[in-house]
Amino acid sequence: MAVQILTSAATTLNPEATGTATPQFEAAPSRYLRHVHLLRGIAIILVIGAHCWPAFGWTKSQTAGVLLVFDNVTVLFMFISGLLFQHLSANFRYRAYLRHRLSIIVLPYMVVSIPAVLMAVFVTHRTDIWPWVYRMPAWEEILFFLLTGKHLAPLWFIPMMTLFIFAAPLFIWIDRKNLYPVLVPVTLALSVLLGRDSVPGLWNVFGKALFMLPAYLAGMFFSRHRAMLEAWSERNRGLLLATLVVLSFAILLQFFPARDLAILQKLVLAVLLLAALKQLRIPKLMEGALAKIADLSFAIYFVHGYVITASRISYATLLGDPTASSIFPPSLTGMVLDMIVVLTVSVGLVVVARGFLGRHSRMIIGA
């Protein structure tokens, strides 16, 4: 159903589907899209939840329900990234773009990674990676961790995202040729059938990039026809909600023999949330807080893994139980409280770091 929605939308809203026309950019596009920015705030909160939930002793059925919400929520970030990339691409200059993105994404990643990489190489060997990694010289181990992001669980996203940064001219060409009606359905089908970890070993970063590719392209497609697609999604919120429910049940019941339906589910969720945020009147204080979280989202992404690790160690010490991973009860309420603590501490760290680092903070912590 989700593929049909995207395909029909592409056909209905795109009379130039031959792939030969050039895109019509808005004369003076607003750089700030309120609803997209607020969605970024929601996305980082969900990402924190995705990394908090394993600390609680869920039953099998509870785990399935929790994963239904948090599994592959980084798809939302990829959709937003693709949307904003196309939205701001009218005067694209590769060298300037590359310099900017490397300075605010890759450089902070390198800096923030230093403690975790040193720990993984010289202090405590990780048990969740291939044994051959620790048979390499130390400098190769360091390079391995930086290229894969396996030194700290959330950081796998940055090496994968770097591939998209370097491939920016290819995405500009796709947009100019308007290849979305073909590429979005085809790449979605591949992602669903192959799953996120289709490529084994060191090259897994390319498998993750392949999995996330349709989310990025769908974001670009949405941006290209944003006015029409937003109007369509606002009119068809019921259809989007029904599709989200059907996909969720299909995931729970394993109804469809695919590796991963979550990417379809999260793409529908992204469009549904955008439609809601466009029309929803949020209390001023709540919207301000969510916008602030969105402002700091990259930096929060970089530091929240450290906060989670530190909190787990603190809880185990406080309770005198090395197996304890939270002071909160193993329940949905406990998990929400844990998310609030991680988010609050992460925001606090970023705000303090920004004040200390001044104008250099964006190149060091990403905000």
Overview of the structural elements:
The chain has 367 residues and is mainly alpha-helical. It has one domain. Helices cover 72% and strands 0% of the residues. The protein has 17 helices and no strands. Helix 2 (34-52) runs parallel beside helix 15. It is globular, with a radius of gyration of 21 Å.
Short description:
The chain has 367 residues and is mostly helical. The protein contains 17 helices and no strands.
What is the count of distinct domains?
1
Largest sheet: none
Radius of gyration: 21 Å
- Average pLDDT confidence is 85
What pattern of helices and strands is seen along the backbone? HHHHHHHHHHHHHHHHH
**Record field, number of beta strands:** 0
Residue ranges: pLDDT <50 for 5 or more in a row?
Answer: 1-29
Distance between the termini: 39 Å
- Estimate the helix proportion, in percent: over 70%
Task: Indicate the topology.
Blueprint: H1 2-13, H2 34-52, H3 60-70, H4 74-87, H5 94-123, H6 138-148, H7 157-166, H8 168-177, H9 180-194, H10 204-224, H11 226-235, H12 237-253, H13 262-279, H14 284-295, H15 297-319, H16 332-357, H17 361-365
Quickly list its features:
367 residues; 17 helices; mainly alpha; globular; 0% strand
